[in-house]
Amino acid sequence: MPEHCLEYIVKTMKLDYNRILLIHPLGYNPVEAGRDISRLANIMSPLGLLSIAAYLEKKGIAADIIDCYAHPDSELKIRHYLKEKNPGYIGLTCTTSTFHDSVRIAKMAKGILPGIRSVFGGAHISALREKILEDYPDVDFSVIGEGEECVEALIKAGTDSKALSGIPGLVYRENGDINFTGLRKDGIDLDSLPFPAYEKLQGYPHAYKLPIFNYPRIPNTCCNSSRGCPYACSYCDRSVFRRSFRYNSAAYLYEHMKYLKERFGIRHINFYDDQFTFNRKRVEEFCRMMMDNHLNMTFNCAVRAEHVDFELMKLMKGAGCWMMSLGIESGDPELLAQHRQSANLDLLADTIRNIKRAGIRTKGLLMMGLPGESEESIKRSMDYVFSLPIDDFNLAKFTPFPGSPLYENINEMGTFEEDWDKMDCMNFLFVPNGMEKKRLEELFIEFHKAHYKRPKVLIGYISMLWKSPDSWLRFASYFTSFLKFAKSNRRMG
User: pTM surpassing 0.90?
Assistant: First the structure.
């Protein structure tokens, strides 16, 4: 059958308004993705979409996922799905840097299925709310906050405007007006959610990779056991969960790990919670379950110095904790105090030493280029980090995202090139007053090189030959790209 005849048939077929295609966009040219070392070194499953898909299926709504980030050549697959399944809805999760690609995909979908309704969600959408529909006609609905209940209600409401107006957390159009129904008052009980629909990801779990040297064994994966954060740092977007903080029970968490082991053979998990140890009792109960009913699994988590001590570290080590990450952000006390609540670098240093003493690998998370940053503060950060037994670190380029407290007045604190496509923490789009972009780039490379030249760090990476052999295999296969990145600070190898 000629292609134009097939297109006509598809466009005139009745859409299935009880079906949604969920998309995790790539955000940039798929040709570049194959040599983008920042992507290849860390391919994370789209946890939000997995939860929404599982929830919708439980409620009788068909949901499928296409992950363009894991599979950059997915555009033909999207087209084929639209023509074959005729979904009534297409849902896209957006960060700031992937938003325009999401709009492009929505426009493409409407060209194939004119009656399809586009639903956008994610941090960027929750931060900008009505502005998204005001400026982008291909966006039909915006979901503000958590997506599970809102998307279910949206699909079941159909075109009933009265029903739409009663769905909290929704932005929609009606008679040329843009309406926001207000924020959802109560967050969903996380233990009531089904386990994420991992099975809907093509190639799971082997198509997904944790950061190199951040795991001991394969296959591995990531998951969340909580949502939100009780703190309000200046650089963090809290548009989705606001100041709320909820978490799964220890029993749910243990059963989730058991499910991943039994169904997918997972051997290591990275918990992407902001505050894994905030509720000490939960963590202690979980650790005892892991030790009493051993799953032969290990895990990583992020902790805050105020919510972990040596006794808890030892318990977590016994339960399989392999690595802890801590948000250092800056080693300059005056700069840190401007941006972070309860900043205490001495406590943080003691915590890092205790983590190492407990036999757990340590990872520091830092930012360069915060408002108020100077060459002197960067040097202090380097001195601070290099004085500590940190095994690995991640240095991000500060980016003022919509929804963060700093965003509203960021232009008073330096120069800001607000190019959404480049707002991925891989570019110095913001340059603090008193600094130059070129010098920031030079110091960024200097920081990395100095860290990886430290003898203790080199010895630690050598030990990964037997502690994380798959990491070394990946490192060897991408060696040229890593080398180019180290020299040029450009992500495309």
Answer: yes
